[in-house]
Amino acid sequence: GWVFSTAPPWVHDSVVFEIDQPQVLRFKEEVLAAHRVTPKARHVAVAVDLRQDWPKALRDAGFDPTEPTAWSVEGLLPYLPAEAQDLLFERITELSARDSRIGVEAFSAGFFSEDHLARRREQIAKMRAESDDGHDMPDPEQLWYIEDRPYVPDWLSEHCWEVAALPSDDLMARYHRAMPAGLTEGTMSTEFVEGILTEKFSG
């Protein structure tokens, strides 16, 4: 998304394409404009629903699939059915030149386990009870697709991405970030997956 003034310099001529719902992009633009924040790289908003033909919208916005791309897929996968998750990564792979990179916030093995979901529901109930307006606190689980799906590192590896995976709490520790207060058992339920496309997938 947007790059703030504290960010390190971008490679010359870098372009940041941000794909999201039109209303989400409008909200971001209004907030940043109100605070007089400007991007440090060329930013191109691509207002399209991922259920639509977002690769065409991306190309129409000036995206060049012959250039290596760095893809960021964060906070998204639980909101996609398993089939749509596969299609997302298929399209990313098709649009990626060799040496493209990808970073994904993916599920740990027990993300959708009933035990983890039960603990999470307890945490949300506690937060609602402690909040003055807790009754208005949304529960993202109501929008999740809780179903079996391919393990992201395996899927990417099978499609010519050289992949490494790291638990999110280990990644936070690497950057000296504190764990969120009250997190069950001191561990996060997601992992960071990064990959480099070593060759074009031929199917």
What does this structure look like?
Mean pLDDT is 84; it is low at 1-6. The chain has 203 residues and is an alpha/beta fold. Strands 3-4-6-5 form a 4-stranded mixed sheet. A two-stranded parallel ribbon has the order 1-2. Strand 3, helix 3 (82-95) and strand 4 (101-107) form a beta-alpha-beta unit. Helices cover 32% and strands 19% of the residues. It is built from 6 helices and 6 strands, in the order E-H-E-H-E-H-E-H-H-E-H-E. The longest helix has 17 residues, at 114-130.
In short, what is this structure?
With 203 residues, the chain is of the alpha/beta class.
Secondary structure elements and pairings:
Elements: E1 15-20, H1 22-34, E2 42-47, H2 54-60, E3 70-73, H3 82-95, E4 101-107, H4 114-130, H5 152-157, E5 161-167, H6 168-174, E6 190-197
Parallel strand pairs: 1-2, 3-4
Antiparallel strand pairs: 4-6, 5-6
